Amino acid sequence: MNDSQRTIGASGGDPEVVATLGIGQRHVAARVIKWSLLVVAVVGLIVGGVLLYRRSQTRGLPTYRTQPVVRSDIQVTISATGTVTALSTVEVGAEVSGKVVKVNVDYNDRVKKGDVLAEIDPEQLKAAVDEATARVRQSEAEIRQAKATLAEAKQNLVRAEAQLAQGLVSQKDVEAARAAAARAEASLSSAMASATVSQAALKSAKNKLDKSVIVSPIDGIVLARLVEPGQTVTAGFQTPLLFKLAEDLRRMRLTVYVDEADIGRAKEGQDASFTVDAFPDRVFPSRVLSLRNEPKTDQNVVSYEAVLAVDNSELLLRPGMTATATIVSETRKDVLAVPNAALRFVPPAARKLSIGMSGRPREITGKSAQKKGARVWVLDGLNPVEVPVKTGASDGTLTEIVQGELAVGMEVVVDAVEKKK
To answer: Given pLDDT bands bounded at 50, 70 and 90, which one contains residue 167?
Structure first.
């Protein structure tokens, strides 16, 4: 530094020289920046302190998850499980004993009424028919013989009575002729009765012979074949099962069991639908055909049988499939509704600390939680406030609100999440 510069610094300098060099402006700018940084730091410390204070006061308090009040259609449904069956299933058995000599059908074969399904060896049955026929002929001969004997006895009686009038025979002879005529008449009656028995036996033998040919009683499809050629069947106290037939599988039925708590809402003619495990993404339409009155009790649970119509025109469904049915018992259109979780929600404890608008904690007593009746909770700031409501129909997800100070779009509390301290 030269002497002239030291002289300027000591005396404060010539203003014109200072202005020319810009020395005063630089000093002012430096002072402004220094004070600005100081103010920002102080404000930051104040805001940080306030946030830390509020966080320390709210630590441990729950936060609330909400969902809006909406307008929606609500379907009240009844769920039940059951089994898909054919509209009519017939079990075909053998009414006579013998060896199966022929089987004409197999699984899934279509048959018509009267088609021959199988044949049983008819030899013994034919012999029984021949025997019964011979007995009928024998009975007919006995009838003719009895008639001839009766005619002879009647003639002898007439002759004896005439001779008695002429004094040629005694009264005893006449009485003997009368007795002979009566016995002849009884013999004729016995022969006619025997003939009736013989004819019945012949009819039964022919019937059994006819039943050695097993025919289909319906038009349908063979679900099961339980007999093989050469197998011997014995018709005793229980008829041996040979085939199981079902009518047209394009029309079937679903039998489900409705819980006693829901049976009061089920009615014939209601729309329904069902699903099966084989086609989990497919919903099949249906309709309630009938409701049975006979109860079924299983482990002290009472249920009632309901029969639903099944359209199986695509032949996707098979007899025996397990199905889950949904019966629509009521439909509510465009109603005010809240999530079911909102009706189940209760503040997590009887007493909670909440932060008011002033930033200071205040107490919530939770007396509302002790009141009876349906209610939901809405937030007033950070505080849950109870709103009493009257509910209507529910579909398991949404519930109709019939009465209450709620409107579409209002947020209702459905859950509380506790913060860790």
So the answer is: confident
| d(C-alpha 215, C-alpha 222), whole Å | 12
Assess contact for 375 and 368: CB atoms under 8 A: yes
262, 236 contact by CB (below 8 A):
no
Q: What is the pLDDT of residues 40-56, one digit of tens each?
A: 777 777 766 656 555 55
- The pTM assigned to this predicted structure is 0.60
Give the pLDDT score at 27.
63
